[in-house]
Design a protein that fits this description.
3 helices; globular; alpha+beta; eight-stranded antiparallel barrel
Length: 168
């Protein structure tokens, strides 16, 4: 079954600090799809969970919406796919921050992307996504910009990303 991800993405303003009550988790992600293919095939480790995710653009071309299929995989399958991904990997710490009726997830990247901070908010519908007014601690909007997809970030790394000086 195909699900839909309806999301907006922003840089995090430099003055923002993680609220003390916010929960966090460590994520490792590797990408198996070719860069620029439009589709994204990813494996992710989050705590004890190992997941494979396939994302594709919305058929209508709306940058807020992507089709998504996600399912658990065995640890040994994850490790094999992780190795096949080569350098197309990233690690980050993710904080969940309550924000009115939605939850903002703030990703603080590690390794070559260290210092980069991005916030994403998922919505139940396109109308809610479009009506969302970001708080002041949200920076520049990145929604729909392929240069800021995690797939692109994993391939390019921090120093090689064309806009690596922003959002740090």
């Amino acid at each position: 079954m195909t699900n839909f991800e309806i999301e907006r993405k922003f840089l995090v303003a430099s003055e923002w600090l993680v609220p003390a009550e916010s929960a966090s988790s460590h994520l490792r992600q590797a990408y198996l799809s070719p860069l620029g293919s439009g589709n994204e095939i990813r494996v992710r480790a989050k705590g004890d969970a190992r997941l494979m995710t396939v994302k594709a653009p919305d058929e209508d071309g709306d940058p807020l919406v992507r089709r998504e299929v996600e399912f658990p995989i065995a640890d040994e399958v994850f490790e094999q796919l992780w190795a096949l991904a080569g350098q197309d990997r990233l690690s980050k710490r993710r904080w969940s921050v309550p924000l009115g009726g939605v939850t903002a997830v703030v990703d603080v990247y590690e390794g070559e992307l260290a210092g980069l901070r991005v916030v994403e908010v998922e919505f139940d519908g396109v109308d809610a996504a479009r009506a969302f007014e970001p708080p002041e601690w949200f920076g520049e909007e990145l929604t729909g910009d392929p240069a800021w997809s995690n797939r692109e970030l994993a391939a390019r790394g921090g120093g090689r990303h064309p806009k690596s000086d922003r959002g740090r």
